[in-house]
Amino acid sequence: MLECVASCLQARWPSGRIAAFASVIDWMASISDDDDGDVLIMLGIGGRRASDDIVMNAMAQLREAAPSCRIVLMGDEEDAPQILEALDLGACGYVPTSVSLSVAVEAMKLVAVGGTYIPASSLTSSRKVICEGAQTNPLAMAGRFTARQAAVVDALRQGKANKIIAYELNMRESTVKVHVRNIMRKLKAKNRTEVAFMTSAQHPSATPC
Length: 209
What we know:
Blueprint: H1 2-12, H2 24-30, E1 40-46, H3 53-65, E2 70-75, H4 80-88, E3 93-96, H5 101-112, H6 120-125, H7 127-135, H8 138-141, H9 147-157, H10 162-168, H11 173-187, H12 192-199
Parallel strand pairs: 1-2, 2-3
């Protein structure tokens, strides 16, 4: 099956060098010192959520093995939260398995030249959820954070622990940790206290701890 997919992709993208691997570990074993690190990876996650521990661990392994690689997730889920979770994890695109081969190839080409691909149809179908999430949080409305990241920021400002945040926002604790890291990176904050202080002016309705 993997070889068939690789052959189809190669036929549609003759200038690309396509290889298929059954797992991240298999791919890592194939890397040599001569590789230039300019790699585009499409990681198939099936029916898993982007925030699943298995997916996050795979992403971390890929980043460690090839820090400059660009990663596109391909999965069965097509809802907006899934796509936003993928982008929060550092993916450069998300391709639903329902799209045609031609669309998948063009998405990979876009990412290969530095772009980001997300399926517009998925975001359009979830427009109401996205808008409601943004309208309830000034940090999300400002465009700096996704709705989920903004909710985590609010919780950090209240001094809540990761375990409590995970429970209240219906996330895995590992997912909360990823959000916290990405929030700190965006703000260039050194710790959670700095995140609370730096966002206080953007959300004056809450009192930082």
